[in-house]
Here is the input.
Amino acid sequence: MQDVFSRTQSLFDLPGGIIYLDGNSLGPLPKAVGARLSAMVADEWGEMLIRGWNEAGWMDLPMRVGDRIGRLIGAPKGSVATGDTLSIKVYQALASALEMNPGRRVILSDSGNFPTDLYMAQGLIASLGQGHELKIVEPEAVEAAIDETVAVMMLTEVDYRTGRLHDMKALTEKAKAAGIVTIWDLAHSAGAIPVDVAGAGADFAVGCTYKYLNGGPGAPAFIYVRPELADRVRPALSGWLGHEAPFAFDPDYRPGAGVERMRVGTPPVLALGALDAALDVWDGVTMEAVRARSIALTERFIAEVERRCPGLELASPRDPHRRGSQVSFRFTEGYAAMQALIAKGVIGDFRAPDIMRFGFAPLYVSMEDVVAAAVAIAEVIDGRLYERPEFRRRAKVT
Ligand SMILES: Cc1ncc(COP(=O)(O)O)c(C=O)c1O
Here is the structure.
């Protein structure tokens, strides 16, 4: 197992002196990406010009890359499309899901969901004007809130703040039994923990590729639709590339086959090329090996930090089987402490009001990194470095 990860660690370009524990926000740069992008720009865009759509296979990239992500989330071939942003994919999934349950009005979500998911639901509800209601309960109360008034259950599997992990299979089964359509946001799951969308029976799953999949800033999102449904769902964003025959230029929309109907417009070819190259790192890596290593790393991190910094309160579940691949600690001076830590070369991030968040990606984070990070955190806390004015100024992106 160690061998797999020493190989993958050598495939990343991390600046010297940095311990990177923020891959749950933006994954680092895989070495292969630069060369791929240069080649795409020079040989494909530069030389082929518009012929690249056919000759370089640009038009097939969204589905080809989707299949590579599918392997990591338990989705069968041809059931994942890539493109757009995750917010857009949430909107698409929710709009289609609501239409599948026309007699019901409740969208069930939880307070651990990422705000954009909730905002997209609020926007869609207003546009539909059919009296839908977004019901937000505490994560622990989701199961009890599943009943026959609910049209759609829309959850993020791993809580972006605390790392708390929902039981996707159990909740999906319970929801299905109550006639509810299910949507799972895998932003903090894909590439972080083993996911089995097909085995869980999820109807829709969406996610981003700039975190644990290392696709780069603004990398395209993905959407999975359960194959049995994919030919029946109506895409709300009926763009020409989701049409059955885009180049027939028919004035009337007819949805394409399967999940391809969730494509919208022209794919972000260069970004998909970067993502495709980034996914090469995963060749020969199983999610089971990643999970085992991630648990070892996070367990050690918690032990080292708690031993050294009793003032930090663990905000993540203590049971590793109930959390994803991140660990969060509460600390009232969390923002300034994180800036001080970053200045020391240990990069994590901060989520309001008081969460210091650390992501663990075995592909490039080692056990030595974990111990060194805990030592640096203790230096920040013991030395009260968070009191320095330069660390207290808030930047736009935290
Ligand atoms: C769970 C979750 N959903 C959605 C998003 C953001 O979506 P987008 O890629 O459209 O910015 C994030 C971003 O971190 C997220 O964590």
